[in-house]
Automatic annotation (TrEMBL):
This is (California timema) hypothetical protein. The keyword Heme does not apply. It comes from Timema californicum. GO terms for molecular function: ATP binding; ATP hydrolysis activity; lyase activity. NCBIfam families: PRK09367.1. Keywords: ATP-binding, Lyase, Nucleotide-binding, Transport. Pfam families: ABC_tran, Lyase_aromatic. InterPro entries: AAA+_ATPase (IPR003593), ABC_transporter-like_ATP-bd (IPR003439), ABC_transporter-like_CS (IPR017871), Aromatic_Lyase (IPR001106), Fumarase/histidase_N (IPR024083), L-Aspartase-like (IPR008948), P-loop_NTPase (IPR027417). The keyword Ligase does not apply.
Amino acid sequence: MEVLKGISLQAHQGDVISILGASGSGKSTLLRCINLLETPDAGVVSVGGETIEMKRHARGHQLAANPRQIERLRSRLGMVFQSFNLWSHLTVLQNVIEGPHYVLKRDKKACIAQAEQLLDRVGLLNRKDFYPAQLSGGQQQRVAIARALAMDPEVMLFDEPTSALDPELVGEVLKVMRSLAEEGRTMLVVTHEMGFARNVSNRVVFMHQGTIDCQGTPEAMFGEAGSARFKQFISSHHQVEPVALVQVARHGATLTLSDSAWQRIAQSREIVGNIVAAGQVAYGINTGLGALCNITLSEDELSQLSRNTLLSHACGVGPVLAKPEVRAILCAAIANYSHGKSGVSEALVQQLLALLNLQITPQVPSQGSVGYLTHMAHIGLAMIGIGEVEWQGEIVPAQQALAQAGLVPYRPGAKEGLSLVNGTPCMTGLACLALDDAERLLDWADVTGAMSFEALRGQLVAFDPEVLALKASPGIQRSGERLRQLLSDSPLLKASVGIRTQDALSLRSMPQVHGACRDQFSHAVRQVETELNACTDNPLVLGTPQAWRVVSQSNPHGESVAMACDLLAIAMAELGSIAERRLDRLVNPLVSGLPPFLVAEPGVNSGMMIAQYVAASLCAENRQLAQPAVLDNYVTSGLQEDHLSLGTGSALKLLKLVSNVDHIIAIEYLLAAQALEFHGESQLAAGTRRAWQHLRQVVERWQQDRWLAPDIACAVAQIKAHRADALVG
């Protein structure tokens, strides 16, 4: 069996070549042949102008003729594997010095010095005495990169270095790889990270069935020069990320679709046309809906069915969704239709894109969904000129906005009414917004928690890396590392060592609690991103116009998103709960060692007393919001739909809960900054000082009682408008 056929590839000094292709296309085998971990049956491999000597085995296959040459040339090639391949019985430092010391015969002290420099570069010097099992996947991969660099290779080979990592760990490995590219390292990278291939590489190679199908610069390959097969590959492998949806929904980025997406949409619509023309019965195309699925409709009734579907399903109640929430739902719906499995027309998707990109925002009631249906029905009505929309800062009739924007009310055809109301775009789009908020708050909670810890003179030994490494949780390692970065240089904490044996749990268990919340967040990201890139219509239109299938199934059931939102709601409620316990200690003179309620003249001043009440009230509300919606169930549509996800409700209550946590963390920020005033700026760690200064830009020190609500609002605005990473350092 031929795995590689007719490969011709040259890498020059300073090249960064990304090798793309489907699984089984030969990418990893090519890399292993370059490093002579696999021996090609024919052809030559040259490194630095030196051709590897081969000989023919008696059975006909090639072998390396000179083992010493192989050892020497391999020392010029650094290899980073998908599965890390660290020696489990060696520490991080020992892993890195093994090759230079024992293979290159270098002085051990010099190897240790070099290894420490490399580990510092990849951000892991403080873990040099850890064993691989004590590290997260991202940390292990960074050690593997340091180990490869320790051999001073001329070329770095990366074999899918991020594919085994959780989403939040991918970035830290790509950051190291990007820095290597910026310093001029020669790199060959087998990857599925399209952003790296597009933005860091200077050449992209696409492999198909053991051959190089096409290659060129990223601009050419991702533009018009890539082969048809490559364009199909990138369109099918392009993952829409929640963060990209947020850019459109909240920040006004323009959404466009690729040519291949439009082709898929057109082909699926052609299938629907063929079914209607042939008079073949297919659910949702020419039948009634739900419990009425056994009623067959004539061709003349199909457009009316779609219109009626929108009218009858648009019966939501309650306050309307915020503009970013409606836009998030629109984005998720367009992503769903872009797969070309729904049978909707290009014109329908173009109308949705026009609403989005022209900022015509349908007024969508927030309540009334047991999973999907009502929210998208209201959006569908706006498309056809019914209902109200926000347009140019005003609420106007949809028909008026369409006319002023140069659009014509859309006339839905066969199946399109059903496709508009079906699927999981509502819960998925809303969940993406909640993820954006939750990620920001997870980072801020570490900052405000560190400020409270310092103000209460906590014992930093609780965050010892060796201790935390005994729990192999990526979230715990992440929060622990951030807390150490924020606090390690605090004069106040250094002077407080030993003043107590241990702190209250709300202080010393921050890495464990914040870390558990981070781990739940990572799980939610995976679930929501999977759903965002799924086909969630029913029925689905599969195949080609010549050989098609219409399949009734249950992809619109949003159980995975509903569960993810419910679990993340519990996690975020806990994040708020532990913050409230910390801020309670700040205002309590019995445990804080600070003036009562953080005011210099208590009695005539109540200080921050009632701010803690507010945080406690929000925590109580969050206990209700954290109750899992997915455990509720109701029967609808005449027993036809007898198990419901209630996923849109899960996402909506998660957004509300996270908003409450915004305020709880902001109150802790306010109180912790006030508490630190009593210790003096010179006693603060660099990280907490930056955070304190950041708040003092908008909120003055509390001297006498004043209207407190505006201060809380300013603190909320600061943590909503700014990411916390810059404060950590």
